[in-house]
Design goal:
With about 375 residues, the chain is an alpha/beta fold. It has two domains: about 130 residues, Alpha-Beta Complex (Aspartate Aminotransferase, domain 1); about 240 residues, Type I PLP-dependent aspartate aminotransferase-like (Major domain) (Aspartate Aminotransferase, domain 2, 3-Layer(aba) Sandwich), CATH 3.40.640.10. Helices cover about 40% and strands about 15% of the residues. Helix 6 runs parallel beside helix 7, helix 11 packs parallel to helix 13 and helix 12 crosses helix 13. It is globular and about 60 Å long. The two termini are about 25 Å apart. Bound molecules: pyridoxal-5'-phosphate. Pyridoxal-5'-phosphate binds next to helix 4.
Length: about 375
Amino acid sequence: MTARAAELREAGADVITLSAGEPDFETPSAVCEAGVQAIRRGRTKYTPVAGIKELRKAIRDSLSSDHGLDYSIDQITVGCGAKQVVFNALFASLDPSDEVVIPTPCWVSYPDMVKLAGGTPLLVACGELQGFKLRPDALEAAITSRTKWLMLNSPSNPTGAVYSRDELLGLAAVLRRYPHVHVLSDDIYEKLTYGCEFATMAAVAPDLYERTLTVNGVSKADAMTGWRVGYGAGPVALIKAMNIIQGQTSSHTSSISQHAAVAALSGGRQHVQEFASAFLKRRDLVLQKLKQAEGLSCRVPDGAFYVFPSCAGVVGKRTPGGRVIETDADFAMYLLDTFSVAVVPGSGFMASPYIRISYASSTEDLTRACDRIIAACAALS
Ligand code: PLP
């Protein structure tokens, strides 16, 4: 979709892109300044594989103050974004017959990462009626003797669903019966919740702390996607193994980015509140607008910066050009080709028929894009 959107834009079309998974805000200026200073002070050499100590200390302190989680800096590793941290964890731990339970809809990269690491993704469909969240009975049914990980992502990309403390406790009760299953808690959207409390497994269920890897980073909350800084905190043995993988692949993320991330994490993070309240207004704008889009229906997401409307009501309809919309991918292509709005089909997140709309765009673009989506739906017969 992104490639097609770029092609259309090059050909002169006024394409509005709501497919990106990154904030449109600028990286806060104090953070940029810390990066510039790192260059000026010559912090441009190799760093320890696990990341510079100042950064691991800042991560340790934020996990402690935000969640009461107690990690030593040996239990923390920094990678090129949360993405590399998740990959390192899977690559370091999966044996060929190992399975990874992935609740769907899920972030596009999880199943492929599991496969790249030689494991088998076990997708568990979590429908809209259950808030797109994994239920304890479904988790229990999915676990086998070969299950190594349960992947949790809250707030979720693509659905924006947020697990409550009680919901995590329900899953923890199952996990207690299966000590061989580890938890990968991808908390990258932690700071972006709207009117609900964020909860994370290692804090909610302290007895699972020893088998939980908590993943997070500065990409989404601090508008730093391009700086490539993510981290993992977990058991020493796992972190060591992840560092071995990283040491033989990327070595570490950029020294400059690491210094900037220290500034992001330790500077009071005032910008995070500002971003979150702007996102909340945009979410409500999009939800309000989409009510007028015939054939779309959307539950209210509690976090991240995505809405994930069902497009079941447009499947089977005919476009003005005479094509029948058979899938969410057809609908997304119609929106792009005919109305110049780029969204992502739900099939990419293992859930159909849905589309993911990112509201990490300006209010003007969101308003124009929603008007186009409304017009696109109205033009179907
Ligand atoms: N996890 C989830 C659920 C994401 O949506 C993303 C990015 O889209 C990442 C991890 C990767 O984050 P990073 O940019 O820090 O690698």
